[in-house]
Design brief:
mainly alpha, 94 residues
Amino acid sequence: MISGLQEIDKLKSQVQDIHVPLEVFDYIDQGRNPQLYTKDCIEKALTKNEQVKGKIDAYRKFKAHMLVELSGAFPNELAKYRAIRGGDETPPSY
């Protein structure tokens, strides 16, 4: 047993920089597989990614619709805006 502990003590420098999230220990305390923590984190990240992607798409559609409406209401001002922005703000056709 002593030689085993000495071997562990020799190897501690190899794992000294590894940080384990506290949630992994919670998984172990609950009798769950710690590998499920990684799976759950990835699933949460994918869900959040889909939510953010949906918000980005909604903002892009809103911007495009707003440019169409503004070009009808304020054509001169929108032309100045496009000139300032470099002309990359062309309204989409619906």
